[in-house]
């Protein structure tokens, strides 16, 4: 039998119906009024049950260097209280795991969708070799607080703060699983649907729903560290698997696809399904990801779309769609390597 949160016993709690590529099994999709729950997060702090996510704890003297050598985030000098994300890439730079990261009392906590817990644990365990690290699966439950930034929550094992998450402040906390009911009781509840609407607005992908086996980090701008923003990919850290692809795209060009937000035609008789083909003038130009109803904008989605089609009218199985311009990245790096190549091609006069 699969996981079922104790918060599913709360009045009005309803799970996401049917099968889905989203990691949503075992927690409430909403508590009776999902659009109101989303609006409420803009006015006061609400709690979202994300206790179905898997949490790993990596500890020991070598933990900072061990994780820094494997993952895309700079973690060798991460202090207590650090919070961000990190990717595990393959040798071609394609995304295998996308984990939230938090450091507390010298322990590195990694949280991932429930379907990735085992594979990430196995990967880390297989890479230990002679490192003095320990990899555990603590019985912790993740809650996400959306809305005005709360004070420290009593009993939180770790706290990770994300100042701007689709227009609201987000605070992820982990508590002992037996404390989830009591901890959540201090806040009004909102379902995973409200969280998902803000996630789509932020442009944060969920691995299985929004990415595919070819996805590289630069396809999702939310994943890239820029300025003071901490995503999942540090652009100046030391070597790790897949770094060559990251560096090449950052310095020489752009990804052929981009994860963008789509506005969907709300008058369509049926909502398109995650994983559907996106077409422009009858040509396949992308893949539909997370689909959700936003309280203000109606049906919206994330989608991987070819850059050449970003300005074109799109269609998904008969449903019209358009790229939300606000989801297009403003800063994709300076591409210093590309400028150097262009100068060499133009000849000596370009050096003047």
From TrEMBL:
Residues 318-352 are annotated as: Disordered. Residues 332-352 have a biased composition (Basic and acidic residues). Residues 259-324 form the CAF17 C-terminal domain. Pfam families: Beta-barrel_CAF17_C, GCV_T. Keywords: Transit peptide. Residues 33-158 form the GCVT N-terminal domain. SUPFAM superfamilies: Folate-binding domain. GO terms for biological process: iron-sulfur cluster assembly. The keyword Transit peptide applies. InterPro entries: CAF17_C, GCVT_N, TrmE/GcvT-like, YgfZ/GCV_T_CS, YgfZ/GcvT. It comes from the Bacteria. The keyword Transit peptide applies. This is Folate-binding protein YgfZ.
């Amino acid at each position: 039998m699969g996981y079922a949160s104790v918060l599913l016993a709360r009045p009005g709690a309803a799970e996401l119906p049917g099968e889905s590529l989203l990691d949503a099994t075992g927690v409430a999709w909403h508590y009776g009024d999902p659009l109101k729950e989303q609006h409420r997060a803009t006015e006061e702090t609400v709690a979202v049950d994300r206790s179905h996510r898997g949490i790993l704890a990596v500890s020991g003297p070598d933990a900072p260097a061990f994780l820094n050598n494997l993952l895309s985030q700079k973690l060798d000098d991460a202090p207590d209280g650090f919070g961000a994300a990190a990717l595990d890439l393959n040798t071609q730079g394609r995304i295998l795991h996308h984990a939230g990261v938090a450091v507390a009392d010298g322990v590195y906590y990694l949280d991932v969708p429930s379907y990735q817990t085992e594979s990430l644990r196995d990967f880390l365990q297989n890479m230990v070799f002679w490192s003095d690290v320990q990899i555990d699966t603590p019985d912790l439950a993740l809650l996400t607080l959306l809305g005005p930034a709360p004070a420290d929550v009593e009993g939180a094992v770790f706290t990770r703060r994300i100042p701007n998450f689709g227009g609201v402040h987000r605070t992820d906390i982990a508590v002992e699983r037996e404390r989830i009911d009591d901890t959540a009781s201090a806040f009004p509840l909102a379902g995973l649907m409200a969280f998902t609407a803000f996630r789509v607005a932020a442009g944060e992908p969920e691995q299985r729903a929004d990415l595919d086996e070819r996805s590289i980090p630069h396809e999702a701008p939310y994943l890239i560290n820029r300025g003071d923003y901490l995503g999942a990919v540090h652009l100046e850290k030391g070597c790790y698997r897949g770094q060559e692809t990251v560096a090449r795209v950052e310095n020489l060009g752009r990804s052929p696809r981009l994860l963008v937000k789509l506005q969907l035609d709300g008058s369509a008789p049926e909502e398109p399904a995650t994983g559907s083909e996106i077409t422009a003038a009858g040509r396949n130009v992308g893949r539909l990801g997370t689909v959700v109803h936003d309280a203000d904008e109606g049906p919206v989605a994330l989608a991987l779309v070819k850059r050449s089609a970003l300005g074109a009218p799109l269609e998904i199985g008969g449903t019209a769609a358009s790229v939300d311009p606000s989801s297009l990245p403003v800063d994709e790096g300076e591409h210093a390597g590309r400028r150097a190549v262009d100068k060499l091609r133009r000849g000596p006069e370009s050096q003047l």
